[in-house]
Amino acid sequence: QAQVVESGGGLVQPGGSLRLSCVASGFTFDTLGLGWYRQAPGKERELLATMNRSGGDTYTSDSVRERFTVSRDNPKRTTYLPIKDLKPEDTGVYYCGVGFEWGQGTQVTVSS
């Protein structure tokens, strides 16, 4: 059964850091591109970053480029999204998409 599971979210103070992870199973991870998305309260889901299957080609949204860095470890079937200098506007549910598979998301709340 194909599955994608995000983790690493939580409650963080402004200025803090997190590393989100996303583990895939049940399908061939290293043949697929992937993306990280965020859905803030009351807003549509937005694309944050993408990476091709080899990891050699990435895209990061201008709005987060200086603070978010997408990576992947194909042998571990995992993608990572380290986030630094978190801001209250980063609050939302973060989703990982690999090929056509989506996870349930991990909640990030940035608040003092």
Number of strands: 11
Could you say which structural class the secondary elements and strand pairing correspond to? mainly beta
Poorly predicted ranges (pLDDT <50, ≥5 residues)?
none
Mean pLDDT: 96
- Envelope shape: globular
Q: Which H/E pattern describes the elements? A: EEEEEEEEEEE
Q: Roughly how many Å apart are the termini?
A: 40 Å
Overall helicity: under 10%
How would you characterize the largest beta sheet?
7 strands, mixed
Description:
- This protein is mostly beta strands and about 110 residues long.
- It has strands at about 5, 10, 20-25, 35-40, 45-50, 60, 70-75, 80-85, 90-100, 100, 105-110.
- The strands form two sheets. Strands 2, 4, 5, 6, 9, 10 and 11 form a seven-stranded mixed beta sheet that branches. Strands 1-3-8-7 form a four-stranded antiparallel beta sheet, with no helix packed on it.
- The model has no long low-confidence stretch (mean pLDDT about 95).
Salient structural properties:
mainly beta, seven-stranded mixed beta sheet, four-stranded antiparallel beta sheet
Topology:
Blueprint (H helix, E strand, L loop, with lengths): L2 E5 L2 E3 L5 E8 L8 E6 L5 E7 L6 E3 L10 E3 L4 E6 L8 E7 L2 E2 L3 E5 L2
What would a concise description of this structure say?
By secondary structure, the chain is mainly β. The chain has strands at residues 3-7, 10-12, 18-25, 34-39, 45-51, 58-60, 71-73, 78-83, 92-98, 101-102, 106-110.
